[in-house]
C-alpha cells in the first residue's frame, strides 16, 4: 500500500474574483497564491501576508516550526471558506483588500475531487489553512 502524494499546486479558472479586477486564472501553492491577470502574473506569498500583521509573526514562525516537526493543528489561518455560498463555493483570503475567489461550478464532482477541497489540501501542505464558515 502506498500513501497518496500531496498535491503541490492547484490551478483553475475562477467563476469570479472580488478584490482584484481581471483575474483569468488562479494557482494556489503551499506557500503562495498566484493570480493571472491578462498577461500579468501577481504572486502573494502567505508568509508576506502573515508578516503584514506584526502580531501574527511569532505565531506564524512557531506554527511553521511545529508543522515541520510533524505536529498538525490545521495550519495558520490565511482565509475563510464557505462551501454553501450562493451561487457557488468561495474562499476569502485575508489580504488587504480581502480577495474572494469563487470556485468553478463543480456540482456533479465528488467533494474530495473539487477545487474547493484541493485548495485546502495544498495550503495545509505548506502549514496554512482556511477557516470553514459553514
Structure, explained:
- With 134 residues, the protein is of the alpha+beta class.
- The chain is 22% helix and 31% strand.
- The protein contains three helices and nine strands; from the N terminus they run βββββααβββαβ.
- The strands form two sheets. Strands 2-8-7-6-9 form a five-stranded mixed sheet. The protein has a four-stranded antiparallel sheet with strand order 1-3-4-5.
- A hairpin with a 7-residue loop joins strand 6 and strand 7.
- The longest helix has 12 residues, at 57-68.
- The termini are far apart.
- The model is unreliable at 45-58 (pLDDT under 50).
Describe what is shown at a glance.
The protein is α+β, with helices and mostly antiparallel strands and 134 residues long. The chain is 22% helix and 31% strand.
Question: How would you characterize the largest beta sheet?
Answer: 5 strands, mixed
Number of strands: 9
Radius of gyration: 15 Å
Q: Let me know the average pLDDT.
A: 76
Computed structural class: alpha+beta
Q: Compute the separation of the termini in Å.
A: 34 Å
Question: What fraction, in percent, of the residue positions are helical?
Answer: 10-25%
Broad shape? globular
Can you count the helices?
3
Element-by-element helix/strand order:
EEEEEHHEEEHE
Amino acid at each position: 500500500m502506498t500513501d497518496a502524494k500531496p498535491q503541490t499546486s492547484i490551478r483553475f479558472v475562477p467563476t469570479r474574483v472580488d478584490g482584484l479586477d481581471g483575474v483569468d486564472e488562479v494557482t494556489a501553492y503551499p506557500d503562495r497564491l498566484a493570480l493571472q491577470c491578462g498577461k500579468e502574473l501577481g504572486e502573494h506569498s502567505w508568509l508576506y501576508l502573515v508578516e503584514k500583521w506584526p502580531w501574527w509573526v511569532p505565531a506564524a514562525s512557531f506554527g511553521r516550526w511545529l508543522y515541520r516537526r510533524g505536529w498538525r493543528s490545521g495550519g495558520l489561518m490565511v482565509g475563510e471558506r464557505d462551501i454553501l455560498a450562493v451561487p457557488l463555493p468561495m474562499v476569502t483570503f485575508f489580504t488587504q483588500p480581502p480577495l474572494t475567489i469563487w470556485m468553478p461550478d463543480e456540482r456533479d464532482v465528488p467533494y474530495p475531487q473539487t477545487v474547493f477541497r484541493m485548495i485546502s489540501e495544498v495550503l495545509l501542505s505548506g502549514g496554512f489553512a482556511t477557516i470553514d464558515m459553514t
